[in-house]
Amino acid sequence: MAETKTIAPAQSVPAKHENPRRITAHNFQLAADRLGLDAEMRMLLSTPFREMRVEVPVRLDDGSLKVFLGYRVQHSGVRGPAKGGIRFHPSVEVDEVRALAEAMTWKTAIVNIPFGGAKGGIACDVHTMSQRELERLTRRFTSRIQAILGPYRDIPAPDMNTNAQIMAWIFDEYSSHHGYTPACVTGKPVELGGSKGREAATGNGVTFLIKKLMEELGKPLKGVSVVLQGFGNVGTFAARGLDREGAKLRAIGDYYGGIYSPNGINLSDLFAHQKSTGKIQGFPGTQPISNDDLLELECDVLVPGALECVIHRGNAERIKAKVIAEAANLPTTPEADEILNKKGVIILPDVLANAGGVTVSYFEWVQNLQQLFWEEDHVNAEMEKILGKAYRNVIDRAQSEKIPLREAAYTIAVERVAKAEKLRGT
Ligand code: NAD
Hints:
Blueprint: H1 21-35, H2 39-46, E1 50-59, E2 65-76, E3 82-88, H3 94-110, E4 117-122, H4 131-145, E5 154-158, H5 164-178, H6 198-216, E6 225-229, H7 233-244, E7 248-254, E8 257-260, H8 267-277, E9 287-289, H9 291-295, E10 301-304, E11 323-325, H10 334-343, E12 346-348, H11 350-353, H12 356-370, H13 376-401, H14 405-424
Parallel strand pairs: 3-4, 3-5, 6-7, 6-10, 10-11, 11-12
Antiparallel strand pairs: 1-2, 2-4, 7-8, 8-9
The structure holds nicotinamide-adenine-dinucleotide.
Residues 8-10, 12, 158-161, 202, 229-235, 253-255, 291, 305-307, 327-329, 354, 357 line the site of nicotinamide-adenine-dinucleotide.
């Protein structure tokens, strides 16, 4: 099945003392202050619209019963149906899901697509589970939350440790309750109505935006040195795109640690090594490096593409990258942001940098509703149009108000959602 990615190991848990909700709350407040929003609007925009917590009992292959906890948080539906991924990870808990749901509201507003924000997740360890157990878990979770899902209500998509196969089970389970409804979930296999280009969209979008930013900085991507954390869906496609553009991948890390070569890593040889050994570690010509040290390497562009809160007050001062492109959601804490801004590091914020995924999810939803299919070139061209426009808006706002790109992005997003909220007359 073309769109099914391999589920990559993602066991690491961000520092437990970091609550990612602090990140969205801080960034929202900066934007709300800048826009002069009143207390009522702040309350409306920062409170999630709906939250659901469900117990998900699953009969394991050994005959025992295990109860998992699952969540779906719809932060906002004011600009359109709530939209956001579903994550399977041991560290999933309600505040993390709330933060990720809120980030989706701002992300869909920045790229100006007609969606709100949502996120879901199940606290589970996919690496200890069989495919049959994962299917039962996905189906049971879907049946428990299906009442609040739907093409005009809330549309899930893949996130960490979930893939096209899992979206296919969600589609099938939802359809068994409501009749054939391909638009109820995106990131499906192409054979079931998934969009061409969706699997690569987030990584392609990251590449496209880094290229635009580097051009703006007078440094074409060819020869630019890149360090990448995360080698799953987003990381591998970003690596492919950056490699295609002639960037030099100096280090790549995943859950098991990193590999480093000051002269650059040959990506196609690395994929061949990964195929034959099952891992990136031990790739000839590279030296091992820890994930902490990897973030602090000398490079032009650092791409965190795995977990949240990895750039924090404890390491921000030692980060040497000139540009950080946030492929992962919420990788930078407010304290780190302040330190990096003072150091002059340019941060392409997550709500813009990784928005290619949700943009192509929007195209998938549109294609499903219209029962027609777009060619991949068309998908990619339309994605670049939307991302290019959002990028320009963010850069222009940052320049005119002399603020960092993150603050500009949040300001645009909060302004749009506040306007919609007002117009709907809450
Ligand atoms: P994935 O499960 O496909 O890959 C995750 C990668 O992170 C794996 O390579 C894993 O080994 C690595 N990882 C886990 N713990 C690590 C650690 N401690 N140090 C270094 N690497 C570690 O997930 P994904 O879909 O690629 O998502 C990655 C990030 O991008 C998440 O923050 C997700 O929310 C965000 N994102 C994903 C999409 C999408 O379309 N999939 C869209 C927007 C944003």
